Amino acid sequence: MLGHSHATSGALAWSAAAAALPLTLLTYPDMHVGDIAAVDLVMGTFLTAGAALLPDADHPKGTISHVLGPISHYACRFISRISGGHRQGTHSLLFVALVTYGTWAGEHWIGRNFTLALVFFLLALAVRALNLAPTGDSVKAWGTVVILAASGTFAIDHWISDKPAWLPFSVGLGALAHLIGDCLTERGCPLLWPLKTRTRFPIIDRTGNKMETLVLVPIFALATVALLWYTITHQP
């Protein structure tokens, strides 16, 4: 699947989870009770959209590779090398668990600086994947991403807590949504990596085809807006 497909599927997954699941599951292991605030719901939508690009950190030519210019490109090359290449280690349930726990640990051990740095990176991924900046790997392209992500982080800084209990769930859910999407293609994913067995349900025969770009992405986007509206308007 393409970057914007992963991003919109991540946003949809978050809005669906927020509408269907109790807050205690969205904030595990902190186990908060009650309803998620509307501002957290909206922030989570954009951040989960960005997190849905994380498994492609093993792809030196993918969307995530160009998000921060040479820094992200060489980071992706390194991750690709240590994970075994594209759609290997980072496309597994182990990776989902690692990014989820890593987010929780970073929040609790480092604090607000980690939270804001992660917010910036996830927003940068969302901006790039949703085509809100010029394409390509030029300074103009990734420089625009940096400016938009920094502006978004500055705005979110006024609303987000030091340790948002829902953020680990958001990151893990975005990564999981990516895996599910890639399992719908012929190549599938090694969900139980380091075992090499791949899980696949080939519904999408070719990445970037009209079904994906003209049907699935608009449906994901409209469904996300509808679920957000429902959840916000039905909170007590």
TrEMBL record:
One of its GO terms (molecular function) is hydrolase activity. The chain crosses the membrane at residues 36-54, 110-130, 142-160, 166-193, 214-232. The keyword Phosphoprotein does not apply. It comes from the Bacteria. InterPro entries: YdjM-like. It holds the Pfam family YdjM. Keywords: Hydrolase, Membrane, Transmembrane, Transmembrane helix. PANTHER family: INNER MEMBRANE PROTEIN YBCI-RELATED. This is Metal-dependent hydrolase.
